[in-house]
Design a protein that fits this description.
The complex is a heterodimer of chains A (118) and B (115). Chain A has 118 residues and is mainly beta. Chain A is built from no helices and eleven strands. In chain A, strands 2, 4, 5, 6, 9, 10 and 11 form a seven-stranded mixed sheet that branches. In chain A, strands 1-3-8-7 form a four-stranded antiparallel sheet, with no helix packed on it. In chain A, a hairpin with a 6-residue loop joins strand 4 and strand 5. The termini of chain A are far apart. Chain B is mainly β. The chains are: A mainly beta (118), B mainly beta (115). Chains A and B meet through strand 4, strand 5, strand 9 and strand 10 of A and strand 5, strand 6, strand 10 and strand 11 of B.
Chain lengths: 118, 115
């Protein structure tokens, strides 16, 4: 168990550019979550996957955002035409959700990708 | 409206003193309850969780939390704080009726430790 990893750790981009972040969850975890955290706030839910299916998207996830999890392993989060308001820490978490009463609901977080849009 | 409230933005304690961080939630049914800690440059680390059963739960690093249904609270405690405990602490909930189990976080409490 190597934990959740995220790349890159930091990204500086100019307004209007596209960026893509990657998350590698804990290998046996079937659920993967994306959150966004702005300065002085707690993380806010963006979207989640169960295996390769994206099951829920927050209203925070505008049309410029897209997430994928091909083959149910790693996930990518792409932001198109970045805006200064997109500057934040993007956090990925994974969990083992069986959907049964015995499932666990603990989410394990990666270190995050800090995005700065200039 | 559903919410998680951490009323203290900052708390400063002396090393060796006791600590209590407050968390209140507003949900129709008791959600799953969590405390996470975030150190600079690090991801969120789970300290402890409450799903059901004993209302006093033990976590890692000497932390404990008590669930009080009547007060809709889940306060985090530690009897003796160490300098390494300085970090940001987040209370989070996952509504039981929401099959996504997505976490809803409070705004956090920053803990400063005086030597």
């Amino acid at each position: 168990d190597t934990g959740v990893s995220q790349n890159p750790r930091h990204k500086i981009t100019k307004r209007g550019q596209n960026v893509t972040f990657r998350c590698d969850p804990i290998s046996e975890h079937n659920r993967l979550y994306w959150y966004r955290q702005t300065l002085g706030q707690g993380p806010e839910f963006l979207t989640y996957f169960q295996n390769e299916a994206q099951l829920e998207k927050s209203r925070l996830l505008s049309d410029r955002f897209s997430a994928e999890r091909p083959k149910g392993s790693f996930s990518t989060l792409e932001i198109q035409r970045t805006e200064q308001g997109d500057s934040a820490m993007y956090l990925c978490a994974s969990s083992l959700g069986t959907g049964l009463a015995g499932g666990t609901y603990e989410q394990y977080f990666g270190p995050g990708t800090r995005l700065t849009v200039t | 409206a559903q919410s998680v409230t951490q009323p203290d933005i900052h708390i400063t304690v002396s090393e060796g003193a006791s600590l209590e961080l407050r968390c209140n939630y507003s949900y129709g049914a008791t959600p799953y309850l969590f405390w996470y800690v975030q150190s600079p440059g690090q991801g969120l680390q789970l300290l402890l969780k409450y799903f059901s059963g004993d209302t006093l739960v033990q976590g890692i690093k000497g932390f404990e939390a008590e669930f009080k249904r009547s007060q809709s609270s889940f306060n985090l405690r530690k009897p003796s704080v160490h300098w390494s405990d300085a970090a940001e602490y987040f209370c989070a909930v996952a509504p039981r009726m929401d099959s996504s189990y997505k976490l809803i976080f409070g705004s956090g409490t920053r803990l400063l430790v005086r030597p």
